[in-house]
């Protein structure tokens, strides 16, 4: 890979984009692998080799269609009446009886008509027809085909009887047709009318037969199926049928059952058949959506609440690795019990290494992901959310690694209570619930062991300084501090006092007091290379600088920063601690040797740069506090019998000098905080350099136990 390519991939924005893509690809792959169902070779009529359950909710189309067809069968058809049919029936009845009346009254009418009118009538109905001819004529000319007997009855009956019969027929027809007669019920209606007329006592049997014949010949269906309305009603009935849904986890077919066509179609729709090579795009779109939402939420949190995280690709990589590690572990453990999955370990690690609020968010995202993998178990989700949140907050400000085990016990208790509570609410299986609760108890212990065991790995691999790490670095048994104590005891005592001053000041202004204290302990470790060239380590009045040129002395003094960085890197001190070594002098001038050089030979040729530290200036409040404490402690120690006013004036002078020389320009410290720091420094220094009682000379070996008079325990 050439330099240009390396430079491209070393840019922070490119690293962030690549890390985001890596997170998406990794999580998508794991979820796709986990959620993609097993496929089977099955055909209709084959015996199922195993129980096959549905991997997701799906409609049972076959049984849904059966229910819809049943609903359609129960739909009553909608009919509409055609009023024109009744009008036509009435006309047919009227036409028949008019023909009868004409045949019966032809002779009477002819006698009353004019000659011209008589010719017209005789053309229609010949006059002086015999009764037989009238009957034959009626039987031939009527359109009802009522038969010879009924025609005979009609001709022989009186006009009054016929009029009454006609009106009665019209009334019967009206009653029946107003209700509507459909094709299927026509014969039934005719039979009903026939029975009704037969039971009448008002007419002779011949007239009853005539009425039945006329009605049977004229009455017809007037109620017809309204296809549009009926189809609309059918559609509504089909829509009102609830779909038959096979829920996720429900059995599709049991082991040994014969595969039917409808079961095979369900398996095909679910993509569970090997013969079907189609890609389940819906599944993959769903997975991609979930992953994108999770990634968006995490990035949005960082942009709003902790933007500095986005500027640290190494920390982002660590978050990614912790997240994916827990997901992978969950895949391995779910076969034993999902309640053993150590989501709490991720929450504790994130809270210790990064931020407790981010830890809660990561815990939420992990719960969603692992719940998808393990089947969306409500008890597990509640356990993971509550237990992980407890883990995230219980390790805040932990100062010993053993505290993580206490947090693990808290998670165990919470897990067990959550599982038992939900289990007893939703199930009567007491023994099973208690077993799951036991797994939840072990989960907390497992999470704490995993967190404690992996914490040093994350700290060292990603240069993360945790409160626990800072406390360990502050331990006097650390190799570098022991080296400082043995080889430069004066510097060691100086560093301890600077640490106390700095810690108090950081506490007062809300800074990181643990970081300040540890940084102060190591800020002068470079002096162990040439300890006797520094005043605090000179046990005699001999000063080696008296034999050296000022420029060389200044070089030795300033080199303790470079020497300190070399030692820090050799002992793998975190960058945050190394910053105190490089920044605690800023780019200040080694004033004593500079002025000595200026007043010596060739003083006008002295270059001030050769007498300055390389810097940089303090970049944080914490390193600025150590810079001020370092100068103040050394200056106060040089005073003989200082009063409170002397010390206060000295503190004011040194801090104001740092401010005027621009040493505090690059850190975000305020004037208000500087005033607080001054007061804190004065208070601590007065407690350290307080006036002591001078004891008179006396024989310390007394009979009362060897203690001088006036001594205290």
TrEMBL record:
SUPFAM superfamilies: HD-domain/PDEase-like. Residues 96-123, 169-213 form a coiled coil. The keyword Ribosomal protein does not apply. The chain crosses the membrane at residues 281-303, 315-333, 339-366, 378-398, 404-424, 436-458. Keywords: Coiled coil, Hydrolase, Membrane, Transmembrane, Transmembrane helix. Residues 487-644 form the HD/PDEase domain. It comes from the Bacteria. Pfam families: 7TM-7TMR_HD, 7TMR-HDED, HD. This is Metal dependent phosphohydrolase. It comes from Alkaliphilus oremlandii (strain OhILAs) (Clostridium oremlandii (strain OhILAs)).
């Amino acid at each position: 890979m050439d330099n240009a390519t390396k430079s491209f991939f070393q840019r922070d924005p490119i690293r962030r984009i690549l890390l985001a893509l890596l997170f998406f690809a990794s999580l998508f792959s794991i979820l796709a692998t986990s959620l993609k169902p097993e496929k089977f070779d099955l055909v209709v009529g084959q015996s199922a080799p195993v129980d096959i359950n549905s991997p997701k909710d799906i409609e049972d189309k076959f049984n849904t269609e059966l229910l819809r067809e049943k609903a359609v069968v129960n739909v009553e058809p909608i009919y509409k009446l055609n009023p024109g049919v009744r009008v036509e029936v009435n006309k047919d009845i009227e036409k028949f009886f008019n023909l009868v009346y004409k045949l019966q009254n032809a002779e009477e009418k002819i006698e009353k008509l004019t000659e011209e009118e008589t010719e017209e009538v005789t053309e229609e109905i010949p006059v002086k027809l015999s009764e037989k001819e009238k009957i034959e004529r009626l039987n031939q000319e009527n359109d009802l085909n009522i038969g010879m007997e009924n025609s005979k009855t009609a001709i022989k009956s009186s006009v009054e009887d016929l009029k009454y019969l006609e009106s009665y027929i019209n009334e019967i027809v009206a009653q029946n047709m107003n209700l509507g007669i459909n094709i299927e019920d026509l014969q039934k209606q005719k039979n009903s009318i026939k029975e009704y007329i037969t039971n009448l006592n008002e007419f002779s049997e011949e007239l009853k037969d005539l009425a039945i014949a006329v009605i049977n010949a004229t009455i017809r269906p007037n109620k017809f199926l309204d296809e549009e309305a009926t189809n609309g009603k059918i559609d509504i009935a089909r829509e009102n049928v609830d779909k038959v849904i096979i829920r996720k986890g429900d059995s599709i077919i049991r082991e040994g059952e014969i595969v039917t066509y409808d079961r095979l179609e369900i398996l095909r729709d679910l993509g569970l058949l090997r013969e079907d090579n189609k890609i389940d795009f819906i599944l993959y779109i769903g997975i991609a959506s979930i992953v994108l939402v999770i990634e968006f939420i995490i990035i949005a949190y960082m942009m709003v609440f902790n933007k500095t995280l986005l500027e640290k690709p190494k920390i982002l990589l660590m978050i990614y690795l912790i997240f994916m590690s827990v997901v992978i572990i969950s895949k391995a453990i779910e076969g034993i019990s999902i309640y053993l999955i150590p989501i709490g370990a991720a929450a504790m690690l994130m809270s210790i290494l990064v931020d407790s609020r981010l830890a809660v968010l990561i815990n939420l995202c992990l719960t969603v992901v692992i719940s998808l993998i393990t089947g969306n178990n409500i008890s597990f989700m509640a356990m993971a959310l509550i237990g992980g949140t407890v883990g995230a907050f219980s390790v805040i400000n932990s100062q010993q690694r053993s505290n993580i085990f206490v947090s693990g016990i808290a998670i165990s208790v919470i897990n067990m209570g959550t599982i038992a509570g939900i289990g007893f609410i939703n199930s009567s299986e007491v023994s099973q619930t208690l077993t799951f609760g036991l797994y939840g108890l072990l989960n907390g212990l497992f999470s704490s062991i995993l967190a404690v065991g992996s914490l040093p790995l994350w700290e060292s691999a990603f240069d993360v300084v945790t409160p626990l790490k800072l406390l360990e670095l502050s331990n006097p048994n650390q190799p570098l501090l022991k080296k400082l104590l043995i080889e430069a005891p004066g510097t060691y005592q100086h560093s301890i006092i600077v640490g106390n001053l700095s810690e108090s000041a950081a506490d007062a202004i809300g800074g990181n007091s643990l970081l300040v204290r540890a940084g102060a302990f190591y800020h002068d470790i470079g002096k162990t290379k040439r300890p006797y060239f520094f005043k605090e380590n000179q046990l005699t009045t001999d000063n080696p600088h008296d034999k050296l040129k000022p420029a060389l002395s200044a070089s030795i003094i300033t080199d303790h920063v470079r020497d300190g960085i070399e030692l820090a890197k050799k002992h793998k001190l975190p960058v945050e601690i190394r910053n105190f070594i490089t920044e605690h002098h800023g780019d200040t001038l080694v004033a004593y040797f500079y002025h000595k050089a200026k007043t010596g030979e060739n003083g006008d040729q002295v270059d001030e740069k050769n007498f300055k530290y390389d810097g940089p200036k303090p970049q944080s409040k914490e390193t600025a506090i150590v810079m001020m404490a370092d100068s103040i402690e050394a200056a106060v120690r040089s005073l003989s019998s200082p009063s409170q006013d002397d010390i206060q004036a000295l503190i004011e002078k040194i801090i104001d000098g740092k401010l005027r020389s621009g040493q505090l320009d690059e850190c975000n410290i305020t004037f208000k905080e500087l005033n607080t720091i001054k007061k804190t420094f004065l208070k601590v220094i007065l407690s350290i350099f307080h006036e002591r009682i001078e004891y008179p000379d006396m024989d310390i070996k007394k009979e009362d136990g060897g203690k001088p008079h006036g001594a205290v325990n």
